[in-house]
Amino acid sequence: MNVLSTEIKDALIPIAKEAEQRREEIEAARCLPDDVMKAVRETGVIRLWTGKSYGGNQSDIFALMEAIESTSYYNGSLGWVICVTGTASLGSGYLPSQSAKEIFGNTHSQTGGWAAPAGRAKKVEGGIIVNGKWSWGSGISHCSHIVGGCFIMPEGEGRPRPALAYFDPKDVNFIDNWQVLGLLGSNSIDYEVKDLFVPDDRWIDFPVRKPVLDETLYRFSFLGALASGVASVGLGLAQRALDEIIALSKNKKPNGAARTLAERPVVHVKLATMRAKLESARLFLQEAVRENWVEAENKTPTKENRSKLRLAASFAASTSAEVVEEAYKLGGGSSVWDGVKLQELLRDVHMVTQHGLVTESMFEVAGRVIVDQPVNEALL
Q1: Cα–Cα distance between 38 and 292 in angstroms, integer?
Q2: What angle do CA 38, 84, 206 make, to 5 degrees?
Q3: Which residue from 102, 193, 226, 351 could staple onto 182, CB 3.0 to 4.6 Å apart?
Q4: What average pLDDT does the structure give for the chain?
Q5: φ and ψ of 152, to 5 deg
Q6: For residues 301 and 174, what is the distance between their CA atoms, to the nearest angstrom?
Q7: Phi and psi at residue 20, in whole multiples of 5°?
Q8: Closest C-alpha to 213, from 127, 379, 100
Q9: Regarding beta strands 111-124 and 145-153, do their DSSP bridges make them parallel or antiparallel, or are they unpaired?
Q10: Which 3-state string (H, E, C) describes the chain?
Q11: In this prediction, what percent of the chain has a pLDDT beyond 90?
Q12: pLDDT at site 2
């Protein structure tokens, strides 16, 4: 399997470092600057999972995961927006080819939004009429197209049909309400559409079914890929927290203490445990991704392996939060100030753990699969 190309990585890391230097500006605006996002798009990282048929890279899962983790290390909001809009490029494998070309064919294409069916739609000739309001519209102010999950309501008896619709930004009302704890620069605002006609070639079933592009990337678990991206943000934040507390421990002497943190046995144990937890979580996620990718090369991955991937992503997110929390606590009074990296990391990682793809509920689902109890396989 490939990793992130040197060309993209060499272009991306300086942008991430600049975003870290501009943290105050970004957090005050509650949005990433246009020039930063323009530079990000020019690296090609947003289109790593876009189909080759539409000019994308169609990379493996690891390439985008590495990009997300490495940028989150410097700025969580930047890593988050790359995660949300980069993973959204998977949609290029499921839309009808002409629509996919129109949405994803531009070199600066970027899609994002909320996929869960919070909206309502009704079937009409040639398409659907959508009404809805969604939250967590991370980075949508920079997107060329915006998605919104909805239920297509039946005319008579029957079950609603969950779907994912693609909107032109000009048809979307943006609601400036991103006043939150962390990931302040991700501008994950609410948005809505009213009585919007969406042609039949601009919506797909969700959870997704058989891909139009019959390639390994699109046979891979759609939700598992998204969850791996979210977990990668957490891993990047946790790695930075570990590095920060290691550096701090070499100089910090708690009040009344004669030795630095780095000279205290209890700190040695905690640092070693933190490293073991972080690297174990990362390796578990990588193993699950690798196993699912090997299966996807020939067929749809099994229920057991898809469940393992969702478990690994949720475990990585929760473990990342544990590592950041421990680093914050070890820092003592040095951690609490605005502008201190450990405080920023604590705020950001606790936003990551709130995402529905990596919540504790996935542990229950994984446990049900382990003991052969029924689950909704479409959600794996």
Answers
A1: 33
A2: 130
A3: 351
A4: 96
A5: -85, 115
A6: 38
A7: -65, -40
A8: 100
A9: parallel
A10: CCCCCHHHHHHHHHHHHHHHHCHHHHHHHCCCCHHHHHHHHHHCHHHCCCCHHHCCCCCCHHHHHHHHHHHHCCCHHHHHHHHHHHHHHHHHHCCCHHHHHHHHCCCCCCEEEEEEEEEEEEEECCEEEEEEEEEEECCHHHCCEEEEEEEEECCCCCCCEEEEEEECHHHCEEECCCCCCCCHHHCCEEEEEEEEEEEHHHEEECCCCCCCCCCHHHHCCHHHHHHHHHHHHHHHHHHHHHHHHHHHHCCCCCCCCCCCHHHCHHHHHHHHHHHHHHHHHHHHHHHHHHHHHHHHCCCCCCHHHHHHHHHHHHHHHHHHHHHHHHHHHHCHHHHCCCCCHHHHHHHHHHHHCCCHHHCCHHHHHHHHHHCCCCCCHHHC
A11: 93
A12: 64
What is the dihedral angle through the alpha carbons of 209, 156, 146, 83, rounded to the nearest 10 degrees? -40
pLDDT at 163 exceeding the cut of 70: yes
Letter string b/e over residues 305-323, b meaning 16 or more CB atoms within 10 A of that residue's CB = bbbbbbbbbbbbbbbbbbb
Strand partners, 147: 113, 166
Q: Return all residues near 260 (Cβ < 8 A) that are at least 6 apart.
A: 249, 250, 251, 252, 253
* Cα distances (Å, whole numbers) of residue 126 to 34, 160, 168, 203: 36, 18, 17, 11
- Region 73-96: mean pLDDT is 98
pLDDT bucket at 93, cuts 50 / 70 / 90? very high
pLDDT tens sequence across 170-181? 999 999 999 999
pLDDT score of 1 more than 70? no
Cα separation, 5 vs 115, whole angstroms: 29
Asked if residue 207 has a cis previous peptide bond (ω within 30° of 0), the answer is yes
pLDDT of 255 above 90? no
* Ordered strands of the 173-175 beta sheet: 173-175, 189-199, 127-137, 111-124, 145-153, 161-167, 203-205
In 3D, which of 74, 72, 83, 45 has the Cα closest to residue 236? 72
pLDDT attached to residue 131: 98
* CA–CA separation, 252 and 255 (whole Å): 9
Mean pLDDT of 154-165: 91
